[in-house]
């Protein structure tokens, strides 16, 4: 009795989606103990102002904030350190930072030698043997020539670089042809250090040595539209646009490779979505047709995520492919004849023959906000690019358009 | 948590939504009981408006015409088993092995009488 009551209630408020979410939640909870080992606390060190090096765990922050401060813990208690408290810090085999190059900032150590190279976002710093520091940037500038406006890269950095390395008989034409990037500048610094009979220690470690995993749950709302039209152009009674708005639930794993890039990650998900596309077609007061299409789909989205604007609320773009399996589908055509208050019903299963598996390209753009490094909330807009052929019928064309928003809670 | 998960998974949801004002009924199957009667099963496939079902039953007719409340040659009114599925035993109007019978489920609400799909059979095909 109680069971029936619960089941009716569950049906009434369309809880099928919640069932899936509960299972996904259980799945996440069961995974959590194992994933704690993949925490963003990484082995590292910090160098105190007196020169002592302390080993411990450094909180990896995959954004621009590692230039302004860092989290460090020797035991259980962690603390945030600013540039004026330490000489520098580092994460083993990933990267090191120095506070001795720019006032009140950490800069990433790229290479050291007679000439050393540092970086903060898109700005490079060269430190000479006698401690002088030169900043290299390449900004876009507008230039008007013969009445036409051009957008040029600033070339000032080339003069500065040539001024630093010119004592080593470096051809100015070599520098003139360079474009501004870390690799090109480092090459010149290595040449200089070599010319001075010294070596360059390269701190870059572009490997997949460290992989960090964020995991989370996703709740979204998707608008779906299935457009049915006949290939031969002759309108059939089932032709039309079937629209629905449904919830999507899922879990996701975001794999980050700090050695390679702070901005790019690989994301793997598992989503569930039930779509119900209902169409009522009234041809006359006596004849009513209704088509009920139901797709229960498990999808596996695989995507590359790129942070396109860093900051306290980073903006990201994500794109990839989603593999959809429609594990439970039904498509029923009801034809009702109404005479007065008497309704005669006929029912046809498989009004549409739905493909079991499809894959689509999809994209997401969104904003993330991290809360004390403990968890992250993301709000994103999704689009699944329409793919035809969802219906297994040679006479039907049926792009399945989907778009919506997602709320993601991750750690 | 585990209890809720089991409960959530175990509750089946087979009733389709609908935009029409009346519930829909389906004649799902029949099985012979003996040479003169059959057991028929029906189910409510849609009831989006939550109409109260006042009567569940089955009709049987002979020949090509689908039975309705006026032309049927046998009727049985049954109790619903769980509000959705119901079944009843119908006497065959005759025992001619070549007669074609049509059987269909029906339901009655305060506003509508709804007749489900018709299933056709012959006694000679029952075994």
What does the model show?
The complex is a heterodimer of chains A (411) and B (127). Helices cover 15% and strands 53% of the residues of chain A. Chain A folds into 2 domains: 2-34 and 208-410, Porin, CATH 2.40.160.20; 40-202, no CATH class. The radius of gyration of chain A is 30 Å and the shape is elongated. With 411 residues, chain A is mainly β. Chain A has helices spanning 2-12, 16-35, 156-165, 172-176, 182-195; strands at 41-48, 53-59, 70-73, 78-81, 86-91, 95-98, 107-112, 116-120, 123-127, 133-136, 140-145, 148-153, 201-202, 212-230, 240-256, 264-282, 287-309, 315-339, 342-348, 357-371, 375-387, 396-397, 400-410. The longest helix of chain A is centred in the N-terminal third of the chain and has 20 residues, at 16-35. In chain A, strands 1, 2, 3, 4, 5, 6, 7, 8, 9, 10 and 13 form an 11-stranded antiparallel beta sheet that branches. In chain A, strands 14-15-16-17-18-20-21-23 form an 8-stranded antiparallel β-barrel. Chain A has a two-stranded antiparallel sheet with strand order 11-12. Chain A contains 5 helices and 23 strands. In chain A, a hairpin with an 8-residue loop joins strand 6 and strand 7. With 127 residues, chain B is mainly beta. Chain B has one domain: Immunoglobulins (Immunoglobulin-like), CATH 2.60.40. Helices cover 7% and strands 45% of the residues of chain B. Chain B is built from 1 helix and 7 strands. Chain B has one helix at residues 2-10; strands spanning 24-32, 37-46, 55-62, 75-78, 85-91, 100-108, 113-122. Chain B has a 4-stranded antiparallel beta sheet with strand order 4-3-6-7, with no helix packed on it. In chain B, a hairpin with a 4-residue loop joins strand 6 (100-108) and strand 7 (113-122). The interface between A and B is medium-sized, with 31 and 33 residues. Strand 19 (342-348) of chain A pairs parallel with strand 7 (113-122) of chain B, so a sheet runs across the interface.
């Amino acid at each position: 009795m109680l069971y029936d009551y619960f089941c009716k209630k569950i049906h009434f408020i369309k809880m099928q989606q919640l069932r899936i979410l509960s299972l996904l939640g259980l799945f996440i909870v069961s995974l959590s103990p194992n994933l704690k080992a993949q925490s963003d606390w990484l082995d590292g060190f910090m160098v105190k102002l007196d020169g002592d090096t302390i080993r411990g765990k450094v909180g990896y922050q995959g954004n621009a904030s590692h230039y302004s401060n860092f989290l460090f813990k020797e035991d259980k208690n962690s603390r945030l350190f600013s540039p004026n408290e330490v000489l520098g810090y580092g994460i083993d085999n990933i990267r090191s930072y120095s506070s001795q190059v720019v006032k009140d900032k950490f800069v990433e150590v790229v290479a050291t030698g007679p000439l050393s190279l540092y970086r903060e976002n898109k700005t490079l710093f060269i430190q000479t043997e006698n401690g002088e520091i030169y900043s290299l940037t390449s900004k876009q500038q507008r230039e008007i020539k013969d009445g036409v406006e051009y957008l040029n890269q600033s070339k000032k950095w080339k003069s500065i670089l040539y001024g630093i390395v010119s004592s080593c008989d470096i051809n100015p034409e070599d520098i003139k042809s360079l474009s501004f990037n870390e690799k090109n500048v480092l090459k010149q610094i290595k040449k200089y250090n070599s010319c001075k009979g010294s070596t360059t220690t390269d701190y870059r470690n572009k490997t997949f040595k460290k992989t960090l995993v964020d995991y989370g749950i996703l709740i979204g709302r998707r608008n779906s539209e299935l457009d049915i039209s006949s290939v031969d152009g002759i309108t059939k009674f089932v032709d039309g646009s079937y629209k629905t708005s449904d919830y999507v639930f899922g879990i996701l794993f975001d794999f980050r490779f700090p050695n390679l890039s702070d901005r790019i990650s690989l994301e793997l998900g598992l989503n569930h979505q039930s779509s119900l596309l209902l169409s009522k077609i009234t041809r006359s007061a006596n004849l009513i047709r209704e088509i009920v299409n139901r797709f229960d789909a498990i999808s596996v989205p695989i995507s590359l995520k790129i942070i396109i604007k860093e900051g306290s609320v980073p903006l990201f773009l994500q794109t990839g492919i989603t593999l959809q399996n429609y594990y439970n589908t039904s498509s029923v055509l009801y034809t009702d004849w109404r005479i007065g208050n008497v309704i005669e019903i006929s029912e046809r299963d498989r009004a549409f023959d739905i493909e079991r598996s499809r894959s689509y390209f999809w994209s997401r753009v969104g904003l993330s906000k991290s809360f004390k490094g403990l968890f992250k909330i993301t709000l994103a807009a999704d689009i699944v690019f329409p793919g035809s052929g969802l219906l297994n019928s040679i006479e039907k064309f049926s792009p399945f358009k989907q778009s919506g928003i997602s709320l993601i809670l991750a750690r | 948590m585990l209890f809720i998960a089991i409960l959530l998974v175990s509750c089946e949801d087979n009733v389709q939504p609908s935009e029409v004002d009346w519930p829909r009924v389906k004649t799902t199957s029949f099985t012979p009981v003996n040479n003169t009667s059959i057991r028929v099963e029906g189910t409510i496939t849609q009831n989006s408006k939550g109409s109260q079902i006042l009567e569940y039953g089955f009709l049987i007719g002979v020949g090509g015409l689908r039975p309705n409340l006026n032309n049927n040659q046998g009727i049985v009114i049954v109790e619903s088993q769980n509000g959705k599925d119901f079944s009843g035993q119908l006497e065959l109007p005759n025992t001619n092995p070549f007669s074609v019978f049509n059987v269909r489920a029906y339901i009655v609400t305060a506003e509508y009488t709804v007749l489900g799909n018709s299933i056709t059979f012959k006694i000679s095909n029952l075994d």
